[in-house]
Write a structure and sequence with these properties.
two-stranded antiparallel sheet; globular; disordered N terminus
Length: 313
């Protein structure tokens, strides 16, 4: 049985009430004398938030193009550093080749002939050399990155590479555990990136001059496809954890010539309460905190310690 993770309080605040537009009420004294308005000091405009935008569908895919347009319109300084071709399912893979091909087809756009991890690595080392971005946004991805899909996702993998380098990151995906309708999913990318702007605005406002997220913590954001045309509004926002199920089950058939035919079956299981699958199935935006390592929780550590107690080399 999977133990439930205790989410950091700061992340819970960001993911729930804060994102619904509510704010703590502030009491004001009754009948307090009104002071004359003071001359407002001249404020120095804050520098635009600098974002490295990547994905796993390719630098010219609809999701990343919509994200680039919407984030730029919101006033962010956005630079695309993404794979040259579709790299879905590559996870955190880094090519590790002695050379890598990189194209610069237009201003603010870099296309790396490699994985999302390669793209983020190149972006941080070269495009943003000496001045790391404030945030890496990976997506929006076509289809969900929930449950076991997230573990192998190139979109999530790109965000993880950023976290490994100490840069806050958000993985952004559109869709649920159902056969996707291409038109509806592309349409739903609009509400997805609109929400991403709200989320980033909230992170920036809460951070003031500090980091956008707690150290080492990223967010895996999954936006549902709502309505037949995909243009509907989500039913809410939920702070979730990654559902432990693996909905894709491979089956292998021996062809008799040293090769095996691979057939992948889609077998979703009942969603775990509080998980990302449950939230997206209910038409909600699922936000799952994540980190860049494979550490389990304290309970799992205690079990492992008990299992190896007394072992000697």
């Amino acid at each position: 049985m999977r133990s439930k993770r205790v989410l950091p309080p700061a992340v819970l605040i960001l993911c729930t009430a804060a994102l619904t537009g509510t704010a703590p009420a502030v009491a004001s004294p009754q009948n307090a004398p009104q002071a004359a308005p003071a001359a407002a000091p001249t404020a120095t405009p804050a520098a635009p938030l600098r974002i490295l935008l990547t994905n796993d569908d390719g630098y010219n895919a609809p999701g990343i193009r919509k994200a680039f347009e919407r984030l730029t319109t919101a006033g962010y300084d956005v630079t695309v550093v993404a794979p040259l071709t579709n790299q879905s399912g590559t996870g955190t893979k880094l090519a590790g080749a002695p050379t890598i091909a990189v194209k610069h087809p237009e201003p603010k756009v870099w296309a790396v002939d490699g994985t999302p991890g390669d793209a983020v690595s190149f972006g941080l080392a070269e495009v943003f050399e000496g001045h790391a971005p404030d945030l890496v946004v990976s997506g929006t991805n076509f289809g969900p990155n929930v449950a076991g899909l997230a573990t192998h996702s190139g979109t999530v993998g790109g965000a993880v590479v950023a976290l490994e380098s100490g840069v806050p990151a958000i993985a952004l995906s559109t869709g649920g555990l159902a056969v996707p309708d291409p038109t509806a999913t592309v349409n739903a990318m609009g509400p997805t990136v609109d929400f991403a702007v709200k989320l980033i605005d909230r992170l920036r406002d809460r951070a003031r001059s500090g980091p956008l997220l707690p150290k080492g913590v990223g967010l895996n954001v999954n936006h549902p496809v709502v309505g037949a045309d995909g243009k509907g509004a989500a039913a809410g926002v939920a702070a979730t954890f990654q559902d432990p199920q693996a909905p894709l089950q491979p089956d292998y058939t021996d062809a008799g010539d040293g090769t095996w035919k691979v057939n992948v079956q889609f077998r979703p299981q009942p969603p775990v309460r509080g998980g990302d699958v449950e939230a997206v199935n209910a038409g909600k935006i699922a936000i799952s905190p994540m980190n860049a390592d494979w550490n389990a929780g304290p309970a799992e550590f205690a079990v492992a310690s008990a299992l190896i107690a007394g072992l000697r080399p």
